[in-house]
Amino acid sequence: METIGNRHLRILFNEGVLLPDESPEVAFTITPYNSSDSFLSIEKAEYEISDIDLKTIILTVEEQELDQNYIITAGINLTNLAGNPVVSGVYDTGFFIGTDELVSDDEIDLLTKEQENEEDQPVNETGTGETVVENTIDTTAPENITDLMITQKLLELNEYLVKLTWTPSLNTAEDLIDQILYKSLNRGKNYDEGLSLGANATKYETKLEGGKEYTFKITTKDHTGNESTGVIKSIRLPQTGPAGVILLASIISGLGASQILRRKRK
What we know:
Blueprint: E1 2-3, E2 8-12, E3 17-18, E4 28-32, E5 42-47, E6 56-61, E7 69-74, E8 79-80, E9 92-97, E10 146-156, E11 159-167, E12 176-184, E13 195-196, E14 203-209, E15 213-222, E16 231-236, H1 242-265
Antiparallel strand pairs: 1-2, 2-6, 3-8, 4-7, 5-6, 7-9, 10-11, 11-14, 12-13, 12-15, 15-16
């Protein structure tokens, strides 16, 4: 996928595709990443004139927001030359980053082609005339972080500063956009809704109450929403302060009573 100025997108498929006869632009939707309430309006969807294989679509859209991450979705009404959805599933997605570069419509040479009949479809290598559908949807999450470590420091009565450090994901696909931190108070049976740490974080600090066990999980996430399984680490913080003093006093008292009983037995 490629932006051509701030009002056009070039989408290259791995096989020929057929746009709907009416309102072909409705075969696509574009939303800002992390927002399902707003859309980038699509005005036109046309074939690129130089592509005789019908693999390249040019979209005309409203002006993009600079550096905004967008997710583009192709619906099941976009089919291959055999009339099958371009992917095996409900939709196919990709992403791009908004630009403010100005390119006039006159510089975009577009042509809307007539959809080809099945008799005119190219014959594949098997000679059957059937088009092989390749699933291009991204379902692979970025690699997990590694070397997750947790340290603690007593700040005051029953309050600790807990610090998490880790080595970033390898991010071999270069599509990682966030790391999510989850916390659990029941050894990982249930986690909270998660905290976004950003793509580049390698440490996190928080103040926590003593006398409890905390389980942390850090996952990685890409533009299309794929999230890794995560790396898990737990820590139990000692109890200090009044409650800890009472507990310690009870232990000492119990030891004292034991000594008295021993003396009486003698």
